[in-house]
Specification:
Elements lengths: L1 E5 L1 H8 L6 H12 L3 E5 L1 H12 L4 H11 L3 E3 L4 H8 L6 H13 L4 E3 L12 E3 L1 H10 L1
Parallel strand pairs: 1-2, 1-4, 2-3, 4-5
Helix pairs in contact: 1-2, 1-3, 3-4, 5-6
């Protein structure tokens, strides 16, 4: 079973129904719910999702949506090792570095799903858009 880290933008595509990416994000989350893949995210992503949703919805509704999300995906550990890895990396974006090193430290995650592939050029993991990942599953 593939183990994938789901980046903030993928979850935002889902929650804000952003075309044309929402359909791919939904399919990724459906695969997680069906236990076809194991999805992970980070505490930073959960914080970002809350913050961005809070601009258009009530606290109680957002909390419920995040709880529902966490029934189908897991949260990776983010500790001092991860932070130092990110701080000492060549990543231009600190948040993306945190995501990357959280996935790397997990040891099982081999793929990061993101809409911003260029931000992960320095990663040693496979970096794919949800669309590309799903196409690869269909072809494979």
């Amino acid at each position: 079973m593939d183990k994938v880290l789901i980046d903030t933008d993928v979850l935002m595509d889902f929650f804000f129904d952003r075309d044309p990416f929402a359909a791919f994000a939904t399919e990724i989350l459906n695969l997680c719910e069906e236990n076809e893949i194991k999805g992970f995210t980070t505490p930073v992503t959960i914080c970002n999702v809350y913050y961005l949703l809070r601009k258009s919805a009530k606290h109680e509704i957002i909390i419920e949506k995040i709880k529902q999300l966490l029934t189908i995906i897991a949260i990776v550990k983010m500790d001092k090792e991860v932070v130092f890895g990110a701080l000492n990396s060549d990543f231009k974006d600190f948040e993306d570095a945190l995501q990357n090193f959280s996935a790397t430290e997990n040891g099982e995650i081999k793929v990061i799903l993101t809409g911003n592939i260029k931000d992960y050029r320095k990663s040693n993991l496979a970096i794919l858009t949800p669309e590309t990942y799903l196409k690869g599953r269909a072809d494979g």
